[in-house]
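About this split. The held-out portion is used to measure sequence recovery: a designer receives only the structure tokens and must propose an amino acid at every position. Recovery is the fraction of positions where the proposal matches the reference. Here is one held-out target exactly as it appears in the evaluation file.
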């Protein structure tokens, strides 16, 4: 009985202390990924595990990778202006599949007015062009801590 209890405590501690895992993807037809790669490097340097799946990803491929990699956060980098329909589609599929616990954030160049639209859809945070790495890192850490894991 004692060993079971210790094992449970060990697994709980390991889970709380593992690095934040974030999947970074470029959905849709957007072909520019320098910003996503720079942010991915900053997150990695901050101790996060970053899985970058690259350009021209479908919402299905993003969801499959997120589930396969057991990520805490999906980060979408969108510069094409299609952020609202892409986010609506991704969040809709997450809802249909009963996927809870994975936060979704979006970064890129987008109108200020769209930030409220994205958050109303269920996006956890929006990082517009010019967001500092420190602000992004802090927000992601708080997001995961708020979900009760760190």
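Reference sequence for scoring:
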């Amino acid at each position: 009985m004692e060993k079971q209890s210790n094992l449970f405590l060990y697994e709980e501690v390991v889970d709380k202390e593992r690095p934040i895992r974030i999947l970074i993807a470029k959905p849709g037809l957007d072909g520019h990924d320098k910003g996503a790669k720079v942010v991915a490097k900053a997150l990695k340097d901050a101790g996060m595990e970053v899985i970058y799946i690259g350009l021209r990803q479908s919402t299905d491929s993003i969801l499959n990778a997120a589930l396969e990699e057991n990520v805490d956060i999906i980060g979408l980098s969108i510069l094409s202006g299609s952020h609202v329909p892409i986010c609506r589609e991704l969040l809709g599929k997450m809802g249909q599949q009963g996927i809870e616990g994975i936060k979704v954030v979006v970064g890129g160049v987008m109108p200020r007015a769209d930030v409220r639209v994205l958050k109303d859809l269920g996006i956890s945070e929006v990082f517009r062009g010019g967001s500092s790495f420190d602000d992004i890192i802090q927000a992601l850490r708080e997001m995961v801590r708020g979900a009760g894991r760190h």
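Annotator remark: Strands lie at 21-27, 49-57, 73-77, 103-108, 125-128.
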